[in-house]
Amino acid sequence: PAPEQARRWGGYWAIGAGISGIIWGSVWFFMFVPDAPVYQLQSAELGRLDRLSLVAIERPALAAHQVRIAVHSAGMNFRDVVRALDVQASELAVRASLDSPLGSECAGVVLEVGAEVDELSVGQRVLAIAPGAFGNEVIAAAQLTAAIPDTLSFADAATLPIAFGTAYYGLRDLAAVQPGERILVHAAAGGVGMAALQLARLWELDVYATASEPKWRVLRELGIASERIASSRNATFAHKFEQRFAVVLNSLARELVDASLALVADNGRFLELGKTDVRSQQAIAASHPGVSYWA
Fold it and tell me: Which distant-in-sequence residues (6+ apart) come within 8 Å of 9 by Cβ?
């Protein structure tokens, strides 16, 4: 937030006069806003959330295919939490690029465009995938930036790039889903899962879903009938859903991957979102001939 300004977001408060503060329960965390043109949220000691602070940084030069954005809202992802808490499972760290700055997606206003950027202009409202988005400015690749309509708030727009981008890429570009195809979305109450459900209904797919039982209410509110909902915590979905699926969007692991693969129809597609149990295409081809597998 800008100095001399106070705002409230749900249970969080930001306090003006150059100081930001958040409250959770009875615990306060304060962050001083640097007296600098550009600053970014960084951790002085990974593993301790109270060591997060806003740090002044140099304004980097803009490359020909990049845009500079004044950040109005930024989306928080699981990767940010894992990074801040210093959870360094080796494979996850490599695959999720945990050494990159906090913040991966945002919405804001274009401040500057690179010499070879034609599709965006200064003053335009945009959303973007941009490492280091937890700051007042960020640089993004033009190809990962898109204009947003005036009817879409910055806060709403900041939630879209990664979840909806992932779901769109998987379902449309990789699986090439077609109207009427049956799809199973695992962990459907999560960010990518809910995005996938909305796109699946937009594209007139036949949707089934799993989630932990306390989240079933969310799926029903999203229009999924109870008989099409099962648990993501065990393999009961394999017995409840007797149908075969043209597409499975997976984020489960171990025996639940095996149970999910058994539900894929001939010439079906299996999209692996998880990073803890990635199989090779060769292994899938041997155990489930005809199934297309992406991870």
Answer: none
Q: For residue 253, how far is the Cα from the chain centroid?
A: 19
Helix 191-202 and helix 161-168, axial crossing angle in degrees, nearest 10: 50
Q: What are phi and psi of 50, to 5 degrees?
A: -75, 0
Which residues pair with residue 52 across a beta bridge?
A: 43
Please name the residue ranges forming H helices in the chain: 78-84, 90-95, 154-157, 161-168, 191-202, 216-221, 237-240, 255-261, 281-287
Q: Is the pLDDT of residue 87 over 60?
A: yes
In the structure, what pLDDT confidence band is assigned to residue 28 with cuts at 50, 70 and 90? low
CB atoms within 10 A of CB 184: 27
Amino acid at 202: L
C-alpha 209/C-alpha 220 separation (Å) is 10
